[in-house]
Amino acid sequence: MRDINGRNISNIYDYIVIGSGSAGSVIAARLSEDQGRSVLMLEAGPSDKSIFIQMPAALGFPLMNDKFNWYIHSEPEKELDGRTIYEARGRVLGGSSSINGMNWVRGNPWDYDNWGAMGLKGWSYDECLPYFRKAETFDQGGNDYRGDSGPMHIQTCEANNPLYKAFIEAGVQAGYPYMQDHNAYRQEGVHITQRNVHKGIRWSTSQAYIHPNKHRENLHVCDKAQVTRIEFVGKRAVAVSFLRDGKSEVITVNKEVILCAGAIHSPHLLMLSGIGNADHLAEFGIKCIADLPGVGEGMKDHIAAPVQYRATQNVSIAKQLTPIGKFKLGAMWTLFKKGLGATNFFEVGAFIRTNDEVKVPNVQFEFIPMLGEFQHGSVKLENGFQYFFSLMRPTSTGRVWLGSADPLAAPKFNFNFLSTQEDRDDAVAAVKAIRHVVSQAAWDPYRGEEVTPGPSVQTDEEILKALRGLAGTNYHPSCTCRMGTDNMSVVDARARVHGIENLRVVDASIMPEIVSGNLNAPVIMMAEKIADDIRGVAPLTKAKAKYYSPA
């Protein structure tokens, strides 16, 4: 058996990293910086060397099938008219960082101080900020908030289309301040988006951390290797079993297994391996290694829904995406890595508070200057524009559970979206806030008919009814193996699984509470931080950067 460089895979490693996504690639690269330690990273999916992965504008294509993604669906959602919700999860080198929307958002600084207030030592904003800085090279240069020498290249979008400009101007007219950098002192307001794109290429964690280092003798990366079980002797993780090329393989680990399979697949693999609710495991004849009832519980995601408009002028970028336009786009990107192929389309955005009772933005706006369907696994383009809102701190919680003891069977999961009155109220308020912004003068030259929810949908009850048919995931599942000390937590503040030796979980599943924004950057930060802990390196010096809080 050979790795992606054709080198022989050993039968024993110091560290085995399961999953190559936003956390796994970071962990594997950082651990392999120590030449005396051997690292194996296992990825279930194929190589990321595909135009549909590397071209930013092709972001919709990996969502349409299971070539690069697990392509899984929730169980029927009670509050969403019984619909099943499609969830894209990366199954490719780079994981979900190879198929996401590339929006570089750290979350609100308050999120991390809140983690610290929950009793999680080491996770305050002052302690997390140095690792955000370590991870990135920001195109506007380094400062107290931003990094200038990290592996992740972060680019400020150009936002030249007239619809992008109308978004910013209308937001200011509606009373939201313009933020030069929403990843620094103040998140709240409208902003030009930042994205992990470099020289026209999607800058995933595999691109940033693995490809430059994959020739290290002590780092082996094995693709198309689906892990089926973590093996234990007593309470100690000792090996990892996986399937590759139809064959079952077992690799022994000397020091630690680091599980980085994501907020749906990490709890699934823990349960298959005997870690979870003992009663649930017994239903499937799985021997319980550790009775941890919190495994798979408490899932949170940013529920999202579109508010769409037709445009009265033909300025939408949809006009550039005709068959001929796509050919030109592809040629320009292939030859020069420039043009529309180098954009992720989400070039402006906002974080707002829908009421004065909350002190941290509770709604995010993402925006694309065309009518496009990305949310439900298909891509359809028309002239127009659309806002996507997401609820930043939802109170509805879902879960992940076993449907079978077969490791190749998909996990069962349910988001339980809109199951609380608070979330229902916030979702209705978000639609109203978008309509208020679109009513501003900056939109007068372009504003056509509202497509969804539609002009006939006006009362709170009508809006909520429409949202039950429109809303879905923003692809941000988290909190299913959360950090903590109570009996429903799964890992401690160092990401070590309670009661188990030599096993950590590092991905969005360990977030004790979902953060205010896209999850890619926060997970990279968490992986950078925990990698230092695994290596025995002293934590980076605390930052002393203030952040905005309304009076």
Word description of this protein:
The protein has 551 residues and is of the alpha/beta class. Strands 7, 8, 19, 20, 21, 24, 27 and 28 form an eight-stranded mixed β-sheet that branches. Strands 1, 2, 12, 13, 14, 15 and 29 form a seven-stranded mixed β-sheet that branches. Strand 10 and strand 11 (201-202) form a beta hairpin. It is globular. The model has no long low-confidence stretch (mean pLDDT 96). Its EC number is 1.1.99.1. This is Choline dehydrogenase. It is an enzyme of class 1 (oxidoreductase). Its cofactor is FAD.
SSE layout and pairing:
Elements lengths: L11 E7 L5 H8 L7 E4 L8 H4 L17 E2 L12 E2 L21 H9 L7 H11 E3 L13 E5 L5 H12 L4 E2 L9 E4 L1 E2 L1 E2 L2 E2 L2 H6 L8 E4 L3 E8 L2 E9 L2 E13 L2 H11 L2 E2 L1 H6 L6 E2 L5 E3 L3 E9 L11 H14 L11 E5 L10 E6 L2 E2 L8 E2 L2 E7 L6 E4 L10 E3 L6 H18 L8 E6 L7 H11 L1 E2 L29 E3 L14 H16 L16
Parallel strand pairs: 1-2, 1-15, 2-12, 5-6, 7-8, 15-29, 16-17
Antiparallel strand pairs: 3-4, 6-9, 8-20, 10-11, 13-14, 14-15, 18-25, 19-24, 19-27, 19-28, 20-21, 21-24, 22-23, 25-26
Protein name: Choline dehydrogenase
Pfam family, one: GMC_oxred_C
Family: Belongs to the GMC oxidoreductase family.
